[in-house]
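G., the chain you wanted modeled:
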Amino acid sequence: RSTPRVGALVDIWSTSRNGFVHGHVADVDGSEVTVTWNDPATGAAMQKTLPARHAQLHWPGSAAEPVTAVASAPWGVVEHPYKAKTDVEVWSSSNQQWLRGKVEFVSGLGKVYVVTKLPDGSPASKELEAGHPHLRLFFRPVCAEGTKCALRRDEGHLAKCAHPFDTDYLEACKARGHEPVQPSLHGLFEWVDADNSGKVSRAELEAAMPLLSNLSGEAMHLSEGAWKALDDDGNGAVSFNEFASWGGPRLGLPLGVQHLFRAGSRGSFCCESPGCGIFGCPCDGFKPRTGSKTQYIRQSLGGALKWSFGGGIGDMCESV
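Predicted structure as C-alpha cells:
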C-alpha cells in the first residue's frame, strides 16, 4: 500500500452537515495530511490538518489509502456492525461500568466515535477501534412474557424491552441468553389479542396494523369490506381460524400450533368446528372441502384472494 498523495480524494467529517463531505489532500507531512473542502452550508473553502488515520477521515480505498489500513488495526477489524446512530455501550474505566451511548460516526479505517453520558449526566465522547473490547452493541432487555406480555400496549415498556416480532428480538435474545419465541401465526394472534379473550376485535386488529404492515412488507389498512371478509361468521370478532386463514398466505409465518396437539387427540380450538379450513394445519380436523379445487382453496384461505392455476396467485380482492 502507498502513502496518501497530494490531490487524492478523501471524505472528511463536517460538523455543520453532521456527516462526511468530499475533499482533497492538499499536503502530506509524514503521518499527517492537510485536507481542503468546501463547507456544505456556506460554500466557503475549508482546510484541516489531521493524522492520516484520524476517525474524521474516510479514505475511499485506492492508491491514496494510508499505509496503516483497517486490516492492520490492533483488533484486526475488517467488517463491523457499527454505523451512525447505532446504540452501543462503552466501558468506563474511571466509573467501572458500561455506559449507554450512540455512534456519532464511523471512519473508513474502522474507528468508531461514540457520544455518551457519564453517571452524573455530563456529556462525554470516546473514540475506539470497532473491535475494541470496551465497545459493544447495546441490546434491550428481553421481556420474559413474550407474546403474552401484559404491557404490550404500554409504549414505555415496548421501547424499553424487546418482544417477539421486534426487529432486534432475536439478536437481543442471543446477547442476553434468552430462548427466543419463534415467530408464528399463533404467537402473532396471541400478541394482537390484547385482552387475552381468545378472539381479536376490530379495535385490536386496527391497533396491530403497523406491526402487520411491517411483517408483510406493504402498507395495510382495515377497510369495511376487509373486516367483513375476515369476520366471515359475522360475530364481531376474529377467531384464530379466521386470522390464520387470512394471515397464512400474506405473512409467510408457520402456524405454530404443534404444541396444541397430542398424538391421537383432536383437542384444540382449531378443530372445535367441523372441517378445519386452515391450509396446512397439522390437526386431524383438516379436511378437503367439497367442490372444485379453486373453490376449496378460496374457502381454505377465507375467500380473500383470487387464484389462477398455472400462474399462481392473482390480484387481491381486498387489501388489509
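The first helix runs from residue 155 to 160.

Shout if anything looks off.
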